[in-house]
């Protein structure tokens, strides 16, 4: 078991990797806890939940809305949750985003922590303090920065994930490897079989490595004014691809990474060997889906990216395996590159 601390200066968040999730009771107050989860997680693990009131949501990104937030708040009021309450999110990315957001605004903020049940939430969504919901097609445009007191990542829970959900989480893990951990790239290249078999010990190690990198970036720049932007590798193209094709998040990010790797090469930052190595890794895990999105739609959606600044985007490229670099690139250039890339791909 490993404990990783995120110290932002204002708050400490402890991420526990490898312990059994049932140990969460030791981290909770004796009373005043309210659990937020989804129907799927409740069906699998509800029988072992600590004996506190449970608020259930429907599984899936469709629940990440202000109307679900309103319903959860109504239920908290009905339960009589006061300022001393503790919100425990048990679930994947959607549950953690919602539970963290509700905890940040309910009665102007109450304590909260997570049991993170999916690979995507263990390596990404539950770690980092961004909590929020979508507005229509726009992802995560309403939200807060607030760190959970703890996150429990029990890698035995990964064994029950549907294959697609697991792969989507692996794509985010590969993202971290490509921008920040060349040794993790090597582990992923050499251990495809064990990773796909969800080997508990290997996953404990790879999940912990991934979180350590993210924790170091978040501790340096919690509010994403600089260094934290590297975590958006694959996201500038990935979010529009996700919105239009309704993919699970990791697959869209993988499609965005593929484009970002080619662009890194085009710009003379990445050499041919490393370009091939990075693309081969995505290919080995089969995480890049077939997708459709016109240049026009790409332009429209990148233009509405919440991370846009004027007519440009802080775009994440790589100049080596594990070495990101952020460049301000105009939306025109990004859309031009995208359109040419798609044209060449089809010919
Ligand atoms: N909660 C996800 C993040 O902060 O990146």
Write structural notes for this entry.
It is built from 13 helices and twelve strands. It has helices at about 40-45, 65-80, 95-105, 120-125, 165-180, 180-190, 190-195, 200-220, 235-245, 250-265, 270-285, 295-305, 330-345, and strands at about 1-5, 10-15, 35-40, 55, 85-90, 110-115, 130-135, 140-145, 150-155, 310, 310-320, 325-330. The strands form three sheets. The protein has a seven-stranded mixed beta sheet. α10 (about 250-265) runs antiparallel to α11. The protein binds glycine.
Annotation keywords:
347 residues; seven-stranded mixed beta sheet; Dehydroquinate synthase-like, alpha domain; binds glycine; alpha/beta; three-stranded antiparallel beta sheet; 13 helices; single chain
Number of strands: 12
Taking all residues together, what is the mean pLDDT? 96
Order of helices and strands: EEEHEHEHEHEEEHHHHHHHHEEEH
What Rg is obtained from the alpha carbons, in whole angstroms?
Answer: 20 Å
CATH topology of the largest domain: Dehydroquinate synthase-like, alpha domain
Under the CATH scheme, which architecture of the largest domain would be assigned?
A: Up-down Bundle
Our count of domains comes out at: 2
**Biggest β-sheet description:** 7 strands, mixed
Quaternary state of this entry equals single chain
| Bound molecule kinds, no repeats | glycine
- Please state the overall shape, judged from the principal axes of the Cα atoms: globular
Low-confidence stretches: none
Instruction: Using the coordinates above, name the CATH class of the largest domain.
Output: Mainly Alpha
Helix content: 40-55%
> Which structural class should the secondary elements be placed in?
alpha/beta
The share of residues in extended strands comes to 15-25%
CATH-assigned homologous superfamily of the largest domain: Dehydroquinate synthase-like - alpha domain
Task: Give the spatial strand order of the biggest sheet.
Answer: 1-2-9-6-5-3-4
What's the total helix number? Answer: 13
